[in-house]
Write a structure and sequence with these properties.
alpha/beta; 2 domains; Non-ribosomal Peptide Synthetase Peptidyl Carrier Protein, Chain A; TIM Barrel; 14 helices; 44% helix; 326 residues; eight-stranded parallel beta barrel; two-stranded antiparallel sheet; single chain
Length: 326
């Protein structure tokens, strides 16, 4: 499967872009466990143009993370074109356009899923970015603004027509945010539209190998994106890839592997972001790392309320002593 000139694998399993989650430390760990393609956190076009520290840091990556896309978002077409030019200088494999983020603070500024209310502007923005960079340009979006405006089949065609090289579709509307159940029916319609020639990737509610195979076989998508199911759970890629290839259901990771991987994540994050950001941003990860481990809840509370990294490591040492390595 190719995205423009990029080889992405026979049926690529992506790590979907998530703010404060898919930073370089986590992306590299997900690659270790089988993610085929990774995408950065959302990078604001205006911040990128101003060369802000946060925007520049989001674009940093290790060679092992390739193929990697830098995802940009914004409301102004000219700014998005300039941002794509700046992002290209960071050396990614492709540029991804965020036309689907439903978060209020982004939508209220006209970015992300807000563009689902102005399809001509979305298409013009995509066309402008395609012209401004030599890299393949992809887009990630949703089914539509709400149930009364499910326009994804038309949107996908129009984005393809202006040069978008692949499209990723989250099976929810903006109005749904992350609630309810993802509807893959329209994703399948996009994929099976005879006019579509570019890869169509699906996203939403895939949390296991069997679920991944079901979506692949039922809707014929060219690949899938794993989002929330990967938070604190990089093993999801190993599980899915193994099941797709062999039909084998893997056992959950051992307690020792969980702790070892979490420690690696913390170490990478400390180098990448420092103590303060690591302390707060890792809090959303702990439940995933120890999901299904009996007796973890008291430790989780202590981890998410820890006031220092020293305290975090103390709790981890206690966890290490509490579970017999397998």
């Amino acid at each position: 499967m190719r995205i423009g000139t990029i080889e992405a694998g026979e049926f690529p399993v992506f790590l979907a872009p998530m703010e404060d989650v898919t930073d370089s430390p986590f992306r590299s760990i997900c690659k270790d466990f089988g993610a085929d393609v990774v995408i950065t956190e959302f990078v604001a076009a205006e911040g990128l143009i101003r060369d802000s520290w946060k925007s520049s840091m989001k674009m940093q990556f290790e060679p092992k993370e390739r193929p990697i896309g830098i995802q940009i978002f914004g409301a102004n077409i000219d700014s998005m074109m300039k941002a794509a030019e700046a992002a290209e200088q960071a050396g990614p494999d492709f540029i991804d356009l965020n036309f689907g983020c439903p978060v209020r603070k982004i939508v209220m500024k006209g970015g992300g899923a807000a563009l689902l209310q102005d399809i001509p502007k979305m298409v013009a923005m995509a066309a402008g970015v395609v012209k401004s960079t030599s890299l393949p340009v992809t887009a990630k979006t949703r089914l539509g603004w709400d149930e009364q405006h499910l326009e994804i089949v038309d949107i996908a065609e129009r984005l393809q027509d202006v040069g978008i090289q692949a499209i990723s579709i989250h099976g929810r509307t903006r109005a749904q945010l992350y609630g309810g159940k993802a509807d893959w029916t329209l994703i399948g319609e996009v994929k099976n539209n005879v006019r579509m020639k570019i890869p169509v990737f699906g996203n939403g509610d895939i949390d296991s190998g069997p679920k991944a195979r079901e979506m692949k076989e039922r809707y014929g998508v060219d690949g899938i994106l794993i989002g929330r199911a990967a938070v604190g759970n990089p093993w999801i890629f190993r599980e899915i890839k193994t099941f797709l290839e062999t039909g084998e259901l893997l056992s959950p990771p051992s307690a020792s592997e969980r702790i070892k991987t979490l420690r690696l994540h913390l170490e990478k994050s400390l180098v990448y972001k420092g103590d303060r950001y690591t302390l707060f941003e890792m809090r959303k990860m702990y439940s995933g790392y120890f999901k299904g481990v009996a007796g973890f809840k008291p430790y989780r509370i202590r981890l998410v309320t820890a006031a220092s990294m020293e305290e975090v490591y103390t709790v981890l040492q206690e966890i290490q002593s509490s579970f017999t390595p397998e």
